[in-house]
């Protein structure tokens, strides 16, 4: 109920309650929360947000927070409240929520953010909201920041500027893998108004890998002030794309728009810089006309991109003969702010991993625009294995295909400071010929041995990852791994685009029926009382095993060690383990010549019947680690395997 949510927010703001609020369906399964009043005659529905706060729901619940339920939100009889005023040093996280029918008599139909406020939106939908002045859904000003991922802005309206979002002052926004459909503003900026001058090394707006469908009668992006970077987007429908006297960079966009100007002597083109030469192509763009300064060799002006109309999910799929397929970039490049940038994001707007090799030439090239065409067969249980790049020997990725359409992915690598090992772990969706991990997690707070306390172990998402395979074997034709750091880690962790060559198989590619009798012993195991450390086992062909243990050093750094030899005797495995005594760094600074692997000691695994538990014991030759024995339980089961015990 609204009053319950208001009370929870009040408690969070005054320090007497949790700052992590979860909205669940009502007792009778209600998923819609109807708002009937504002908060203390403030003009907005919820208490002022001045401290960190997270409000979320389960994605499957489709929770909707509704002020005015019909489509005529500007009806004079309707309630006229916006939802959130966010300011000071507040951080507002909104996850898996829909806001509908909110109304602001000034700026920000749903959210008005100022000061040093920070907004994180994940899978949030704004539909049919209204602002009388600017920002039909969101108004940012002063130093406010918006990060929006997998979000949708649908049919929002402003009677001024910025039908979806208005950005002023020194504010900025990063919008990624999102959808904007039929937002409206009068006079300008149906989707965005950008009149902001943030710090020198920041774009006022970055729109990446998103879909913009427009019925605009003026211009989608009104940009009198503030650098913009538009990358890997698909623009479709009617309206001019850009009016700008500030710098705009275009990279790998599809532009298929019909000008929204009337047929007069002052008719505008799709892109208008008013003689400032402010619009610059960085290449790989395609447009049905030639006004957007598409002067790079890789650009295609006056070219039909041959794309289908939007489907029911607002996805715009290239036709089979489209010139955008495998026509994009394939290497990391340096953008105009000096930042290392992936040629396309880790997945497309449908969720498929990218880049792909759609034409089968062995080169994983991005398609232009928001959608990637699949280049390989759908993955099967045989994709379980260990993968690495031959040019980066000493780090790799372990994949375990699970039984619910997901896969466990663990990257074994090194910290950027060069003095610590690191592992990153996440569960990804299997999408076509790719595995897509939206949240790759790093743990902190663990210590080796008796000092380990699972309550002190925390998990933080540092980025996203995809693995794309053009074939199952991936030995002669390796796949591609893309790592994309989160915005808060982009100065610490490099983007990565590396090969994924197979080292091991648990299930053979040419036989989905179990070809490995011991395959059912594979999986992740841990001691439930020591969650945050454990051991990965892959039983591979010819009576062999690959084992990787992950834990922490005695001073709390990441530690992993890998088997150099493993002997199998009945239900027991004895493995000699090695670890990198001298280290290297993450990403661009990785140098395998800096690594020196030394013996760590011996691990013994003794499986119990049915393979769901084992005794884990170790005896280290590294003095500070000693020896111990733990009772481990299975965490994961590898798809396509059965237990032989």
What can you tell me about this protein's structure?
- The protein has 645 residues and is an all-beta fold.
- It has 3 domains: 2-313; 381-502; 519-634, Lipocalin, CATH 2.40.128.
- 2% of the residues lie in helices and 42% in strands.
- It contains 1 helix and 46 strands.
- The strands form 5 sheets. It has a 24-stranded parallel sheet that branches. It has an 8-stranded antiparallel beta barrel with strand order 31-32-33-34-35-36-37-38. Strands 39-40-41-42-43-44-45-46 form an 8-stranded antiparallel β-barrel.
- Residues 262-266 have low confidence and may be disordered.
Write a concise keyword list for the protein shown above:
3 domains; 645 residues; Lipocalin; mainly beta; single chain; 24-stranded parallel sheet
Condensed summary:
This protein has 645 residues and is an all-beta fold.
Question: How many independent structural domains?
Answer: 3
Largest sheet: 24 strands, parallel
Strand residue content: 35-45%
Alpha-beta content class:
mainly beta
Radius of gyration: 26 Å
How many alpha or pi helices?
1
Sequence stretches where pLDDT stays below 50 over 5 or more residues = 262-266
Shape: globular
Mean pLDDT: 95
Assign a percent range to the helix content. under 10%
Count the E strands.
46
End-to-end Cα distance, whole Å, is 53 Å
